[in-house]
């Protein structure tokens, strides 16, 4: 467990370093930033562009709107981050299942692999902003077994669209990673396709799958946030960032508070997937 | 490394997979157009016997859409037998496309942008011109000496692009400036920092939003908020290149359906009643918008509704009625003004079906019979005091 503590400590140290760097930049660099000719190479550092860290934190304790009964910015950010976390994890599960099934099908039928793999790669070159309105358009048009499509479901689908890719590719790589001798041993012992899959290929895929899942988590979080921004889905952190950015002219600290929430959300999601690491530890060393 | 020594020779399994896919696709059914409801012209009957109607906005709920939110909150739609669901916009949501594709019954959109979509095949009709004036400004610091479009020559001019910039380009062209060569064009962000930090000399701003943002920022020289006297504003209504903005758009094809026609009249009537409510009850209307979930500051929101009211009221011929002259000017600018990419909004005049006063006239008659003031001849805007950051 020592290593785990150390990595947690290093994460915290990294965060502190980032805060110090931010404040140092504000202290040292000129307010107007640094420009070479007409091109700015370093950003403006005045309070209107880079608020102090404590201004951002203080923002969390202020009411969102100056009317009685309004919730605090901190509460709003936390609620939004939690909402997006749910959608991102939903998208991750959806994407992971899809990616694994796709990998299995591609493993089983070489024809499918040859036909589908280029499209799997191609799918990631289609810009998200092109897909988002399309998927958002499902709202009110599609009903699945009597359940009508909700805006958050669009966000989840878009998030899974980004998440399935690393899983599909990583899983396929993992499933086909056992060396020839192992595969031939299984064949010599008259093991069928399913037995080989369960006893050999799946365990062997774990070391490839875990990093793929980490990538997929990051992609799912980014996908969920971008999809929220793109479709304007209420409740999530992406929407909140845009909302707060609208009033960033005088004081951008509130927007940074929301961005901070998004960063914490990413860390939590990565941590949650890190737990999988622990659960699947016994397979980690099978191919090394 | 060898991969998969055991190749499948069993097409049966392929068939099984295909069959499974087919079943799962069949489980997803599509509902007919009209915002998730069955369509007897604008939607079917909801639980309470009201007709379900969806309205697609251009952006998040804010004061710009106060009238529709008030009509929901005050039950004006319900009074007309409508159960209205308001769909918020987003960065990539194009309301007129959503409408044309049948995912909403009505949409709010700027006239030039909607006409551009129409030219590309979107079957939509302007049925009520809610904002009769343009809310777009070009804002500069007073000491920059920019008081008219001609003064923009040689300056750094911010603009939003994406079809929001044509009034500015028409204004500059009208003043004898060639936008592509005589000014430095800068793509503007959502916020107004570029103007305040001096990166651009003149910034595009909506009277009801970005202009308020600069007045909510602190002037570092005085320690107080910036004052209107610190700025000069070019108002395109005065220059004569103003284009029509927020209008209620309906689906052209469905307008041939008598039931949808009737719904349209009711929808416009209740919406205009909502706007009349916001004219007469500014603060209550602000509270409705905040309650609807807008996180913009309270004073900013009040400013926004007050400014939007100015774009609607007074409406001498009746709110929502499309003024032929303003329409023609919009079309003319849309056909002639060339933006930074060398494009005009429209390449040909829109056909007569692009707008119709038929339904808004019926709606106005309904409201007048009801005793609602749809002209607002005595309307006076209030003075809104903005707080720092719009709080």
Automatic annotation (TrEMBL), chain A:
Subcellular location: Cell membrane
Keywords: Cell membrane, Membrane, Transmembrane, Transmembrane helix, Transport
A Pfam family reported for this protein in Swiss-Prot or TrEMBL: BPD_transp_1
ABC transmembrane type-1 domain segment(s): 81-277
Membrane protein topology class: Multi-pass membrane protein
Regions crossing the membrane: 72-105, 117-140, 152-172, 255-280
PROSITE patterns: ABC_TM1 (PS50928)
Family classification: Belongs to the binding-protein-dependent transport system permease family.
Protein name as annotated: ABC transporter permease subunit
UniProtKB/TrEMBL annotation, chain B:
Matches recorded under InterPro entries: NMT1/THI5, SsuA/THI5
Keyword annotations from UniProtKB, A to Z: Iron, Metal-binding, Pyridoxal phosphate, Signal, Thiamine biosynthesis, Transferase
UniProt keyword Calcium, yes or no: no
Residue span, SsuA/THI5-like domain: 64-281
Catalytic reaction annotation: N(6)-(pyridoxal phosphate)-L-lysyl-[4-amino-5-hydroxymethyl-2-methylpyrimidine phosphate synthase] + L-histidyl-[4-amino-5-hydroxymethyl-2-methylpyrimidine phosphate synthase] + 2 Fe(3+) + 4 H2O = L-lysyl-[4-amino-5-hydroxymethyl-2-methylpyrimidine phosphate synthase] + (2S)-2-amino-5-hydroxy-4-oxopentanoyl-[4-amino-5-hydroxymethyl-2-methylpyrimidine phosphate synthase] + 4-amino-2-methyl-5-(phosphooxymethyl)pyrimidine + 3-oxopropanoate + 2 Fe(2+) + 2 H(+)
Signal peptide: 1-26
Domain of life, source organism: Bacteria
Pathway annotation from the record: Cofactor biosynthesis; thiamine diphosphate biosynthesis
Known partners and oligomeric status: Homodimer.
Role, per record: Responsible for the formation of the pyrimidine heterocycle in the thiamine biosynthesis pathway. Catalyzes the formation of hydroxymethylpyrimidine phosphate (HMP-P) from histidine and pyridoxal phosphate (PLP). The protein uses PLP and the active site histidine to form HMP-P, generating an inactive enzyme. The enzyme can only undergo a single turnover, which suggests it is a suicide enzyme.
Record-stated family: Belongs to the NMT1/THI5 family.
Protein name from the UniProt record: Thiamine pyrimidine synthase
Source organism: Pseudonocardia humida
């Amino acid at each position: 467990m020592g290593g785990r503590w150390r990595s947690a400590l290093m994460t915290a140290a990294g965060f502190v370093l980032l805060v110090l760097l931010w404040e140092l930049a504000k202290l040292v660099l000129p307010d107007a930033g640094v420009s070479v000719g007409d091109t700015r190479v370093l950003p403006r550092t005045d309070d209107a562009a880079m608020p102090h860290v404590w201004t951002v934190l203080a923002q969390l304790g202020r009411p969102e709107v100056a009317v009685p009964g309004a919730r605090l910015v901190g509460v709003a950010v936390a609620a939004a981050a939690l909402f997006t976390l749910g959608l991102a994890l939903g998208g991750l599960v959806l994407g992971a299942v899809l990616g694994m099934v796709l990998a299995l099908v591609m493993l089983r039928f070489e024809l499918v692999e040859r036909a589908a793999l280029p499209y799997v790669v191609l799918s990631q070159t289609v810009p998200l902003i092109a897909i988002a309105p399309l998927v958002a358009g499902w709202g009110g048009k599609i009903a699945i077994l009597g359940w009508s499509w909700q805006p958050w479901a669009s966000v989840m689908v878009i998030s899974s669209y980004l998440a399935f890719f690393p899983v599909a590719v990583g899983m396929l790589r993992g499933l086909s990673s056992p060396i020839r001798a192992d595969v031939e041993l299984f064949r010599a012992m008259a093991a069928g396709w399913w037995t080989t899959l369960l006893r050999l290929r799946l365990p062997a895929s774990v070391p490839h799958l875990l990093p793929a899942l980490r990538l997929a988590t990051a992609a799912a979080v980014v996908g969920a946030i971008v999809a929220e921004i793109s479709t304007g889905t209420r409740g999530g952190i992406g929407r909140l960032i845009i909302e707060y950015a609208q009033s960033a002219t005088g004081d951008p600290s509130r927007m940074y508070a929301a961005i901070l929430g998004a960063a914490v959300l990413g860390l939590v999601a990565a941590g949650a997937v890190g737990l999988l690491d622990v659960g699947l530890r016994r397979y980690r060393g099978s191919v090394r | 490394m060898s991969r998969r020594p055991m190749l499948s020779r069993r097409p049966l399994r392929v068939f099984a997979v295909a069959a499974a896919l087919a079943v799962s696709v069949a489980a997803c059914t599509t509902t007919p157009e009209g915002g998730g409801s069955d369509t007897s012209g604008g939607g079917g009957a909801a639980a309470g016997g009201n007709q379900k109607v969806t309205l697609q906005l251009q952006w998040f709920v804010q004061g710009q859409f106060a009238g529709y939110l008030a009509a929901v909150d005050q039950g004006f739609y319900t009074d007309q037998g409508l159960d209205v669901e308001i769909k918020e916009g987003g960065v990539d949501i194009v309301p007129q496309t959503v409408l044309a594709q049948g995912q909403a019954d009505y949409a709010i959109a700027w006239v030039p942008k909607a006409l551009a979509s129409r030219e590309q095949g979107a079957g939509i009709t302007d049925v009520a011109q809610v904002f009769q004036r343009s809310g777009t400004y070009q804002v500069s610091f007073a000491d920059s000496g920019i008081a008219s479009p001609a003064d923009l020559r040689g300056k750094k001019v911010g603009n939003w692009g994406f079809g929001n910039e044509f009034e500015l380009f028409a204004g500059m062209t009208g003043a004898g400036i060639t936008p592509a060569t005589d000014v430095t064009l800068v793509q503007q962000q959502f916020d107004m920092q570029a103007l305040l930090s001096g990166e651009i000399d003149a910034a595009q701003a909506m009277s009801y939003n970005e202009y308020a943002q600069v007045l909510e920022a602190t002037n570092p020289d005085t320690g107080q908020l910036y004052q209107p006297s610190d700025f000069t504003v070019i108002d395109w209504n005065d220059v004569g290149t103003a284009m029509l903005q927020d209008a209620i758009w309906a689906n052209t094809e469905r307008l041939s359906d008598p039931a949808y026609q009737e719904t349209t009249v009711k929808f416009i009537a209740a919406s205009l009643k909502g706007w009349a409510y916001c004219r007469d009850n500014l603060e209550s209307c602000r509270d409705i918008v905040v309650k609807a979930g807008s996180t913009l500051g309270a004073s900013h929101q009040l400013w926004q509704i007050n400014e939007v009211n100015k774009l609607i009221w007074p409406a001498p011929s009746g709110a929502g009625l499309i003024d032929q002259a303003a329409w023609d000017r919009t079309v003319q600018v849309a056909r002639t003004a060339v933006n930074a990419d060398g494009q005009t909004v429209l390449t040909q005049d829109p056909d007569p079906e692009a707008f119709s006063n038929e339904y808004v006239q019926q709606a106005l008659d309904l409201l007048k019979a009801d005793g609602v003031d749809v002209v607002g001849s005595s309307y006076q805007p209030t003075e809104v005091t903005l707080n720092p950051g719009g709080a």
